[in-house]
Design a protein that fits this description.
Helix content is 67%, strand content 11%. It is mainly alpha-helical. It is a multi-pass membrane protein.
């Protein structure tokens, strides 16, 4: 009886991954019929059984308001970055300066890391080139990094994206850790500003 319960629990945990793989299969075929759905389900089961994938631990929590803010901010970032890249490409004397930046994420969740990397790569001008899963590091290629302020802005944008994702779907512990890190960053920024004004 216990083995049967644990087997069903394992299937339930894998369900979001199976659904995502079937949805990806349907998007690749660009139409939905019985054969496409059945082959998608069969392939999704075969992939999850044949290839080892680390378990995706879902928090079971979703904040609709934070999810809406995350979506709106993603749209805003994509539109603004698209316009910037378009303007830069039309400027005759503009020479792009780019950099590879390492950003230390605040969480170690595989799901949050993956979603953060995807969200960053969707925005024109930045793309994640490598992930150090063990240390929680993202390496990204970023355009428009002429000054130290540009690098710091890109770093803040990545941490801000991670923060919005955690507040939308992360665990309560992750959300509290993110809020605490934000308070510490703001306190450090205030200290720097007060020292500069002296």
């Amino acid at each position: 009886m216990h083995a049967e319960v644990s087997r069903w629990r394992s299937v339930w945990r894998q369900l979001p991954l199976l659904v995502a793989l079937v949805a990806l299969w349907l998007l690749l075929w660009d139409h939905i019929d019985v054969l496409t759905v059945v082959t998608g389900v069969v392939l999704a089961i075969a992939v999850t059984r044949a290839l080892y994938l680390p378990p995706v631990l879902l928090s079971g929590r979703f904040n609709p308001w934070r999810g809406l803010l995350l979506g709106l901010r993603m749209i805003f970032d994509v539109v603004v970055a698209s316009l910037q890249v378009a303007v830069y490409s039309l400027l005759p004397g503009w020479k792009p300066i780019s950099a590879i930046i390492a950003v230390q994420l605040l969480t170690r969740s595989d799901l949050v890391t993956t979603l953060t990397a995807e969200a960053i790569s969707v925005v024109p001008g930045t793309v994640v080139v490598d992930i150090d899963r063990e240390r929680g590091l993202l390496y990204l290629h970023a355009l428009g990094t002429r000054t130290k302020a540009d690098l710091e802005r890109t770093h803040r944008n990545v941490l801000g994206t991670e923060e919005r994702i955690v507040l939308a779907i992360g665990t309560h512990e992750q959300a509290e850790a993110i809020r605490q890190a934000r308070r510490e960053r703001r306190a450090a920024a205030r200290d720097i500003r007060s020292k500069e004004h002296r």
